[in-house]
Amino acid sequence: MNEAEPIVVAIDDDSETREALGSLLRSVGLQAKLLSSIPDLLKTGRPKGPTCLVLDVRLPGRSGLDFQRELVAAGIYVPIVFITGHGDIPMSVQAMKEGAIEFLTKPFRHQDLLDAIQVGLDRDRAWLENDREIAALRKRYQSLTQREREVMALVVTGRLNKQIAGDLGLSEITVKVHRGQVMRKLGATSAIDLARMAEKLKIVPAW
Q: What is the number of other CB atoms lying within 10 angstroms of the CB of residue 166?
């Protein structure tokens, strides 16, 4: 599956700053979307590929910091690099505690901004890849029968086939067959591998 192109979304209400950011990003081969406010971003929606937000702290209406807090509260993770002409230490500490990649005060070195953006894009690329892996794993899990799911839930607690057979009222050979089917369908290579998959799927172990 081809990954969508990485994109940097720069939000600043000053048109000169937006254009300067766009020129800088394009000069290093990065795709840029230039917006003047948070509502503009919400209208366009999140890009499909790896994304990094370059966000001015002070924006008309909803501030960059307010928007960051809303994203965190909603469980939406997008790498953010803050830029500001009016920063202070408490503001930068708050932004970093909420997960910002960097907090740069104007005027800043172009390389510092580009380095922070690269960190953000790499981080988002990893998040997106993890999301894709979990979606594919969830699809494979859906192919398991109810009995196979019951066996899997007991296998990942470390119980032996004989114990699982007693728990479920099955023969040991039947448990072995179900266990083999679980391993094959999920593509697991060992019980430890299966336990990792169960953790990713947030399957509560049966006790």
A: 13
